[in-house]
């Protein structure tokens, strides 16, 4: 009898602790997901003059935020600023090379002096280099790491003192499904996005105690119009063809405005991570549950990609063919017109 009472007591104690634990977790989740209003908040977006960055700037302005964008290209930046001014609200544009920590410090200081302390930092600036690994140089890898790892770190360190002082803030790191699955012919891009995911995850864990929420965003392909400004090596026309067609087709790619809305929703809630798009979600799950299968699939895909190791670099706009001007890329070309991706200077 005593033994039975002991067992029932143990079950009761375990059930009590389990219920308390679940209640605590639910309470913490509710606290973490307290909604943030963007009205009258200062939002800084790197790489905000075109593509996803410009789309995010529009949507933050529509939410009543004060928006600052930065980019390197003066002419592209000026067109973006003119568009944002026409939307109303308060916006500013600052020329800045985000791979230079001195310029980043100066840019953040100018934004804070003009618009106030940064409430939301969106580390969005990025580049894409496509081609076989034999065509890539150490400089290609360094360039990718500079823009995808060091630049977000510089910007984050520049806004952190004010955020910590006020014990509030949001930091958004735009990574990629390429930071979860390393895709053939995009190795510098994937390696640097993996690094950004690691940086972002670590910052989320450490900065939560200061009231700062860090969100890692891993979207799949999205129709921003960016392929024409990506860089291609090897058989550059062939590389541009597979990339631009994939980037344009519904099912493989996602409407960029919809992606931006999902990002804003995740930032409002303070989510730790958001995978955007069904292909990205499926890819991440399969990579976690079946890494060998994923590796075999990527190796299979690689065999059907162009195999030319020429190191010469071309922009997508220099790699057009009848295929990439066909109906297959129509949605991406329309997106390029909407999102300031045309007429970007070639370097």
UniProtKB/TrEMBL annotation:
UniProt-listed SUPFAM superfamilies? NAD(P)-binding Rossmann-fold domains (SSF51735)
Lineage of the native species? Bacteria, Pseudomonadati, Myxococcota, Myxococcia, Myxococcales
Q: Where do transmembrane segments lie in this chain?
A: 12-31
Q: Which GO terms describe its molecular function?
A: oxidoreductase activity
- What UniProt keywords apply to this chain's record, in alphabetical order? Membrane, Oxidoreductase, Transmembrane, Transmembrane helix
- Which Gene Ontology CC terms are recorded? membrane
- What family, per the record? Belongs to the short-chain dehydrogenases/reductases (SDR) family.
Q: What is this protein called?
A: Ketoacyl reductase
InterPro entries, from UniProt?
A: KR_dom, NAD(P)-bd_dom_sf, Sc_DH/Rdtase_CS, SDR_fam
Q: Which Pfam families match?
A: adh_short (PF00106)
Which SMART domains does this entry report, sorted A to Z?
PKS_KR (SM00822)
Domain annotation Ketoreductase: ranges: 41-180
């Amino acid at each position: 009898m005593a033994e039975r009472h002991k067992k029932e007591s143990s079950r009761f104690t375990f059930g009590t602790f389990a219920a308390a634990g679940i209640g605590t977790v639910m309470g913490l989740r509710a606290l973490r997901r307290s909604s943030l209003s963007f009205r009258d908040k200062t939002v800084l977006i790197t790489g905000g003059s075109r593509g996803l960055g410009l789309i995010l700037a529009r949507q933050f302005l529509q939410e009543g935020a004060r928006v600052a964008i930065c980019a390197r290209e003066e002419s592209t930046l000026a067109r973006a600023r003119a568009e944002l001014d026409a939307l109303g609200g308060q916006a500013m544009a600052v020329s800045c090379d985000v791979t230079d920590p001195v310029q980043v410090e100066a840019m953040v200081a100018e934004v804070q002096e003009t618009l106030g302390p940064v409430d939301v930092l969106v580390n969005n600036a990025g580049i894409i280099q496509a081609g076989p690994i034999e065509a890539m140089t150490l400089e290609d890898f360094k360039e990718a790491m500079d823009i995808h790892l060091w630049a977000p770190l510089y910007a984050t360190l520049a806004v952190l003192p004010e955020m910590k002082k006020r014990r509030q803030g949001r930091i958004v790191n735009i990574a990629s499904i390429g930071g979860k699955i390393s895709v053939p012919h995009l190795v510098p891009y994937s390696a640097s996005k993996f690094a950004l995911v690691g940086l972002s995850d670590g910052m989320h864990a450490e900065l939560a105690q200061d009231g700062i929420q860090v969100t890692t965003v891993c979207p799949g392909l999205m129709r921003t119009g960016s392929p024409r400004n990506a860089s291609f090596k090897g058989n550059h026309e062939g590389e541009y063809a597979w990339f631009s067609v994939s980037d344009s087709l519904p099912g493989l790619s996602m409407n960029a405005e919809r992606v931006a809305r999902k990002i804003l929703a995740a930032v409002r809630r303070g989510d730790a991570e958001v995978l955007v798009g069904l292909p990205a979600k499926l890819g991440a799950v399969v990579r976690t549950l079946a890494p060998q299968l994923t590796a075999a699939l990527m190796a299979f895909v690689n065999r059907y990609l162009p195999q030319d190791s020429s190191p010469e670099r071309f922009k997508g706009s220099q790699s057009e063919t009848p295929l990439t001007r066909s109906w297959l890329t129509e949605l991406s070309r329309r997106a390029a017109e909407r999102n300031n991706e045309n007429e970007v200077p070639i370097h």
